[in-house]
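Batch manifest line 569
LIGAND: zinc ion
JOB: complex structure
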Amino acid sequence: MPAVYHACYLDYRVRSPASLTADVLTSVIAREHTLVAHNLTQIVSVFKQATSHSSAAACLEHLATIDPTTRVVLFIDMPPREPAFNQVPKDALHGPSLLQRIRSTSSLPKCLFPVALVDDEEAEMANYVDLGAIDVIHRIMQEPRIRGILVQLYRDTCRILPHGTYKAGWICGSMSTSIGPDEERLIESLFHVMFFDQTPSADPLVVTPLLLAHEREAYLQSIIGDWDFPANKLTDDELTQCAYYIFQHSFTMPEVQHLILSPDDLQHFISVLRASYQSRNPYHNFRHVVDVLQATFSFLLSMQVLPPYYTRSTLPQQEGISASSLARILDPVDALVLLVAAIGHDVGHPGVTNAFLIASRSPLARLYNDRSVLESFHCAAFNQILARYWPIMQEKNIKDLIIDAVLATDMALHFDYMRKWDSILLDGEILVADDETENARRKRLLCSTLIKCADISNVARRLDISTHWGTALTQEFKKMSDLEERLGMKNPAATQPDISMRRPTKVLSQDEKEMVALAKSQLFFINAFAGPLFETVKLVVPELRYTADQISNNKHTWEKRLAELSEFT
Ligand SMILES: [Zn+2]
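JOB STATUS: finished
ARTIFACT:
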């Protein structure tokens, strides 16, 4: 599927005008001026494809050849404010004259959005906007700024559609049916996540004090280190407080003092995240991410990457890190960053799957070329939140680790991660790493794997807690399935046969039918994904073996229940 927006980059320093994609980027930029190489890299990382031009004439020629309905963002490197004599290009159409020409030429694409690249955005903004530029940004381009422009364009496209007919909404792309108020609110809230922190003067979030009794606080402190953490029984205020205690414990490490937030700022950060999750999602809501945060916290405690947390913990007591464990390659900064990634990994989740977004041709899917759509969206939205509420987390190494961890939660990539571990293990033993690069690679893989494990740790929790999560996820799928039906997206052949249609020897009650369906889905998920993953983790980090053991217990119980009920079906 082609990208919705096409990008053109015009800069007289371009040495070899080219059509660019990520595949050819490295070879093309090797020949280019440093600034051009940098800018093209930033553009391709957002648009996936682009063209570069060294003269306005060549650029206009190219624009005249493309489909007039294509939306084009044209980045124009404007003349320096005080050019040295050898910096002035010999192109009559360079800079402002090109903007004027674009306004007066009818043969160009109807949706052509020029962006001026300058040295001083504030000083030069008015000139270029008056001439038709939709935005004015710094000459040294930065990916988040480019992404912001693209997202703004999407928002404007949606806004101009009549109310109630979000044919080009974020969730459903080209559906002929208009969608209901619930979905409209959902789309609005996605916008909220993407944009509420872009107006520095207005913070729409008022942090209301949490309603917690004193005894309750003590109780929460006593359970956050517990593997039987009952997130399903806690209110959102209590979950907020648990997240606060978890971060506060990690803040006690001397090695992370340069990264920590004050208590007020931490409370604010958690409240902002809480507001950016959809409470109407039965599964992908604030409760899920606090549960993932707590699972990550438990793993890091067991691995002794975090200092001991003394509670009535059901975490098995560890003697010390075993010599073979990869736990020793993580440091305190990794631990804190993983906790941050855990609580932000599903920001703005709309309660539908990637498959749904792709099938409905949602602009969100097109924006990310159908690849890891939600996870890419979570990254973009979470980075905006971090930029404002925890800016030091934007440091290159930290940001990279967060992005890796969030993208790793795409289950479509699950087997890629399993293969990566296969290349590190031989007969259950970890191969010796031959150099620092290999060690760094393992560290990143381990970090991503820990978040993956935490994200699917429901099946590794005590059975009653595990059952709660399984039921919540089933409810979310049911809601999505209803939406698919309303939108006419259902393929009848793909519908699961209803077990009540078979010839039963005993009619199952509704509860029993649901139990059979739940047992089957739990067993499928354990056998296909969670079981092998946690077994692998047990080999590389033996301190986490209790998770694989619990999965194996749960599996036997589900098999037994299914066998009992299946006798009647
Ligand atoms: Zn998740």
